[in-house]
Specification:
By secondary structure, the protein is α+β, with helices and mostly antiparallel strands. Helices cover 21% and strands 38% of the residues. The chain has two domains: 4-36, no CATH class; 48-155, Jelly Rolls (Sandwich), CATH 2.60.120.10. The radius of gyration is 27 Å and the shape is globular.
Length: 159
């Protein structure tokens, strides 16, 4: 009989714990509070015509808009422009609006034409060549701090 009494105490103790867990409304409150504490990010409406066009070299120009965790760049490349081999921790989506770029990436040569997209993973070395005059939209996450700070010397050459 002494063995059965401790078993009963364990059962009653576990029942009390379950009741406390069920009746606690605290599990939903912090989630709502955390959302309310986030600073409000202002909406941005930005026509490309208002964004300065940056001349990086005679064959390469760009514009970009930066959000909190994302960047959109409009890149203008003249035929023959070379973007040297480089890599970055940012994920990149490249959408070709007009023209075509040949990418040298992951041991392959991939031609991306108007209406096509290339998704470049973080830290993957790549190089690009404009096969014709090209308008390219690049999306980066997180934003490219080297572009924002103008420390992207690999783009600021002759080709």
């Amino acid at each position: 009989m002494p063995k059965s009494k401790p078993k009963q105490k364990k059962k009653s103790g576990s029942m009390q714990t379950k009741k406390k867990g069920k009746s606690s409304p605290r599990s939903t409150k912090p989630v709502g509070s955390a959302k309310e504490q986030k600073p409000k990010v202002p909406l941005q409406y930005i026509p490309w015509l208002t964004v300065p066009l940056e001349d990086l070299n005679p064959l390469l120009q760009r514009q970009f808009v930066v959000g909190q965790q994302i960047m959109l760049a409009r890149v203008l490349l003249k035929k023959g422009c070379i973007v040297p081999l480089h890599s970055h921790h940012n994920e990149q989506l490249t959408y070709i609006v007009e023209g075509a770029l040949k990418f040298y990436i992951d041991g392959q040569e991939i031609v991306v034409k108007a209406g096509e997209v290339l998704c470049i993973p973080s830290d993957m070395p790549h190089k690009a060549e404009a096969l014709e005059d090209t308008v390219d939209l690049d999306v980066f996450t997180p934003p490219r701090t080297d572009w924002i700070n103008k420390t992207d010397q690999y783009l600021r050459g002759e080709k």
